Amino acid sequence: MSNSSNAAIVEISQTANKFRSSIVLQYENKYIDVKSILGLFTTLLTSGQYNLHVHGPDAEEAKTAMSEVFAKHNMAVNVITD
User: Fold this and answer.
1) Which range marks the domain in which residue 69 is found?
2) What local confidence, expressed as pLDDT, does residue 61 receive?
3) According to the model, what pLDDT value does residue 13 have?
4) What's the DSSP call for residue 67?
5) pLDDT value of residue 71
6) Residue 2's pLDDT is what?
7) In 3-state terms, what secondary structure has residue 11?
8) Angle at Cα 18 formed by Cα 15 and Cα 23, nearest 5°?
9) pTM of the predicted model as reported, rounded to 2 decimal places
10) SS3 label, residue 27
11) Fewest CB within 10 angstroms: 20, 29, 38, 77, which?
């Protein structure tokens, strides 16, 4: 894994940890807590379609921030709105 990938994972986790909301990344049949850096390292090794589920008191702000950090690192993510 490249240093830029490592930097993306660290920034994604750090951004998620700023929020009280639950932030979960879905890849195929796996669900990973985005606040867990270890979970991200094992999940973001492959390219693919990711869905982001955000629930909690600051969900709207979290969705915006998470979308921005994924886009910054050229990673596609579909933010699920329910």
Assistant:
1) 3-80
2) 98
3) 96
4) H
5) 92
6) 65
7) helix
8) 70
9) 0.89
10) strand
11) 29
The CATH number assigned to the domain holding 26 equals 3.30.1340.10
pLDDT given at position 82: 72
> How far is it, in rounded angstroms, from Cα 63 to Cα 19?
10
Name the domain count of the chain: 1
Tokens of 25: 């990344």
Buried b (16+ CB within 10 A) or exposed e, 28-61: eeeebebbbbebbbebbeeeeebebbbeeeebee
Q: In order along the chain (82 residues), what is the average pLDDT of each group of 10 residues?
A: 79 97 92 92 75 97 96 91 76
Q: Parallel, antiparallel, or unpaired for β 77-80 and 50-55?
A: parallel
Single out the residue of 12, 3, 11 nearest to residue 32, CA to CA: 12
Triad 41, 45, 49: Cα angle to 5°: 110
